[in-house]
Amino acid sequence: MTRPTSASPKVSAEKAKATVTTKPRAKKVAQKAASTSQTKAKKQPQIKTQAKAGVKTPAKPKATKPVKTVKAAAAKSKRKAAAKAVASSKASDYMPKGYNSVTPSLIVRDAANAIAFYADVFGATELSRTYGMDGITILTAALKVGDSIIHISDEMPLYGIVSPTSIGGTASALQVYVEDVDATWERAVAALSVVLLPLEDAYWGERTGKLIDPYGHVWTIAKKVEEVSAAELEARFNTLYGTPVDAVEEESLEVLSPDNADEAVKLVDISEAIATDATYTANTIEAHTTLQ
């Protein structure tokens, strides 16, 4: 039998003490870990429940989405404004402000009264007027009709600048869209314009008519009244005029002529239509209306 040494009781006592001391600490750490795990487990279902119920929490990205949307919209608006400013600056480099790419220039006899005519009939606004050295001849007057600008000039035969009145005709025409086409038409006729095609509802979806103003220029006055598709346009054309021109032989083109020749619109000689002895003045419309 082995005899115990004097150190054995002391080692056993320290070991026992260490064991007793360690067990409460381990237990405490284990309890803390379990408590943390339980807390997380409780929070997770709560977050899911709130999400299902549609409740937004501060931690959710959805809470900041409206702010991001507003910022994105503001940024988009700024980009559009910047792009518009750049486009405008580029246009101003080669084109005066308010102008479009093409500007009609009308030569007339007696530009001063012609300007009054276009103002009274089409509501034109005079933007500028430049006189020649004689102080009478209008070299250029800029008028704004709707959103477009046109130029009016006196004829100057010495420089080869002549009006329809002088040459007895014109090879061009202008088309103007107006809000009240009937009222505009009545004013034009009252101001001594000659009707070429009467005002009517055309098959292509516009109410339109054509006339010659007192200065020899041809105008088509129109207003859009309906949208017409390409298929509907073709169907209406075929109903009115028969088979399209490109689908018939040259010998059968009479299908495009009216059945009754008396109903055909008579061609107007512009030189005869221009009333040289009936110059338009500011009170012409009023006088014409009074006579009626």
Question: Which descriptors apply to this entry?
Answer:
4-stranded mixed beta sheet; 18% strand; 2,3-Dihydroxybiphenyl 1,2-Dioxygenase, domain 1; elongated; 8 helices; alpha/beta; single chain; disordered C terminus; 292 residues; 2 domains
Number of helices: 8
* CATH 4th-level superfamily of the largest domain: 2,3-Dihydroxybiphenyl 1,2-Dioxygenase, domain 1
The parts where pLDDT drops under 50 for at least 5 residues are 18-22, 47-51, 250-257, 287-292
Fraction in helix: 40-55%
What structural class is derived from the secondary structure elements?
A: alpha/beta
Oligomer: single chain
> What is the typical, i.e. mean, pLDDT?
76
Distance between the termini: 153 Å
Q: What's the overall geometry? A: elongated
Elements, N to C (H/E): HHEHEEEHEHEEEHHH
**What is the number of domains?**
2
Q: Using the 3D structure, state the CATH architecture of the largest domain.
A: Roll
The tally of strands reads 8
Strand content: 15-25%
Q: Mind describing the biggest β-sheet? A: 4 strands, mixed
Identify the CATH class of the largest domain.
Answer: Alpha Beta
CATH topology of the largest domain: 2,3-Dihydroxybiphenyl 1,2-Dioxygenase, domain 1
Radius of gyration: 44 Å
**Strands side by side in the biggest sheet:** 1-4-3-2
